[in-house]
C-alpha cells in the first residue's frame, strides 16, 4: 500500500508540536550556570593550617596523584627544663587532577579536616601539566567550598563549636574584668595633687646633697666638728665621735 502523500510531513509537524509543548531540559551553559547539588564533587580544596603532613591521604589515594613533601623542624621546649619537640612542616602539597578519579577517599580519610570538596568545575586546561594544582591553588579552592548544612534541631553541639564558644566566653569575661578594673594610666582622685618625685619641691634645691652629709661617707666637716643643726646619727664613717 502506497503511503498517503504528505503523511510524512504531517507526522514530522506532530512531533515538532509535541516537543514544543514539553519543558526544555537543555542547559544553556556557559551562558547560564548550572544549578549543582550542594555536595557536587568539582575540585578539592586544601585548608593548609589543618594539615599535619600525616600522609594518610597520599597513601590511601588509589591513583597516587597526591604529592606531599615536608621536612622536620625542632620546636624549643615551651618551659625551662622541658623537652624539645619536632614537627612536620609542609613544603609541597599538590593534586594531579588529570589522574584524580574524584573518589573522595582522600577527603574521607583526612583525620584533621584539611581537605574539602568544592563544586567548582571550570578548571579545564589546554596543557595537561596545568592540571596539577599546587598548594596555593588548592588553597584558593577552599574559598569556594560551601558552608556545611545546618544541624538538625535538637542535635548535639559539635565539640569544636563548644570549645570555640567556651574560649570566646572566657575572653569576654576577661575583657569585662579588665574594663571594670581602674586603669593605672587614669589619674585617681587625689593622685594629681601628689607631688611628682621628679618635680623640684620648695626647699628641695636648698637641701644639702646627701653625699656631703656627715655620716654618709661623704666629706666630713672641716676639723671633724659636728654642725650645730645636725640631728643625724653620729655613727657614720668620717663623722664626729
Ligand atoms: S579524590 Fe580519590 S583519586 Fe582524587 S586525589 Fe582524592 S583519593 Fe586520589
Ligand atoms: S590526610 Fe589530611 S592531614 Fe594528613 S597529609 Fe593528607 S591533608 Fe594533610
From TrEMBL:
Broad class of the protein's primary localization: membrane
Reactions that this protein is recorded to catalyse: a quinone + NADH + 5 H(+)(in) = a quinol + NAD(+) + 4 H(+)(out)
SUPFAM superfamilies: 4Fe-4S ferredoxins (SSF54862)
The protein's required cofactors: [4Fe-4S] cluster
Record flagged with keyword Plastid: no
Pfam families to which the protein is assigned, alphabetical: Fer4 (PF00037)
Protein name, as recorded: NADH-quinone oxidoreductase subunit I
GO CC terms in record: plasma membrane
Record-linked InterPro entries: 4Fe4S_Fe-S-bd, 4Fe4S_Fe_S_CS, NADH_quinone_OxRdtase_chainI
Protein topology in the membrane: Peripheral membrane protein
HAMAP family for this protein: NDH1_NuoI
Native source organism of the sequence: Streptomyces pristinaespiralis (strain ATCC 25486 / DSM 40338 / CBS 914.69 / JCM 4507 / KCC S-0507 / NBRC 13074 / NRRL 2958 / 5647)
Residue numbers binding [4Fe-4S] cluster 2: 61, 100, 103, 106
Subunit: NDH-1 is composed of 14 different subunits. Subunits NuoA, H, J, K, L, M, N constitute the membrane sector of the complex.
Task performed by this protein: NDH-1 shuttles electrons from NADH, via FMN and iron-sulfur (Fe-S) centers, to quinones in the respiratory chain. The immediate electron acceptor for the enzyme in this species is believed to be ubiquinone. Couples the redox reaction to proton translocation (for every two electrons transferred, four hydrogen ions are translocated across the cytoplasmic membrane), and thus conserves the redox energy in a proton gradient.
Keyword Translocase: yes
Comp. bias regions, Basic and acidic residues: 156-169
Region named Disordered: 146-241
EC top class, as a word: translocase
Family the entry assigns: Belongs to the complex I 23 kDa subunit family.
Amino acid at each position: 500500500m502506497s503511503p498517503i502523500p504528505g503523511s510524512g510531513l504531517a507526522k514530522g509537524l506532530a512531533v515538532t508540536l509535541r516537543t514544543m509543548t514539553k519543558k526544555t531540559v537543555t542547559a544553556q551553559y556557559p551562558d547560564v550556570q548550572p544549578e549543582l547539588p550542594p555536595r557536587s564533587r568539582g575540585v578539592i580544596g586544601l585548608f593548609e593550617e589543618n594539615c599535619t603532613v600525616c600522609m594518610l591521604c597520599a597513601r590511601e589515594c588509589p591513583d597516587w596523584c597526591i604529592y606531599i613533601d615536608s621536612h622536620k623542624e625542632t620546636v624549643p621546649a615551651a618551659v625551662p627544663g622541658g623537652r624539645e619537640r619536632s614537627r612536620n612542616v609542609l613544603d609541597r602539597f599538590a593534586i594531579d587532577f588529570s589522574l584524580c578519579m574524584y573518589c573522595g577517599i582522600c577527603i574521607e580519610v583526612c583525620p584533621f579536616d584539611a581537605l574539602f570538596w568544592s563544586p567548582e568545575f571550570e578548571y579545564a586546561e589546554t596543557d595537561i601539566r596545568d592540571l596539577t594544582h599546587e598548594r596555593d591553588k588548592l588553597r584558593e579552592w577552599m574559598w569556594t567550598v560551601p558552608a556545611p548544612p545546618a544541624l538538625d534541631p535538637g542535635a548535639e553541639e559539635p565539640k569544636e563549636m563548644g570549645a570555640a564558644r567556651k574560649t570566646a566566653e572566657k575572653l569576654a569575661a576577661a575583657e569585662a574584668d579588665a574594663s571594670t578594673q581602674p586603669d593605672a594610666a587614669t589619674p585617681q582622685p587625689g593622685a594629681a595633687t601628689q607631688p611628682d618625685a621628679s618635680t623640684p619641691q620648695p626647699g628641695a634645691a636648698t637641701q644639702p646633697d646627701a653625699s656631703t652629709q656627715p655620716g654618709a661617707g661623704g666629706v666630713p666637716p672641716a676639723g671633724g666638728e659636728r654642725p650645730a643643726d645636725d640631728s643625724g646619727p653620729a655613727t657614720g664613717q668620717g663623722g664626729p665621735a
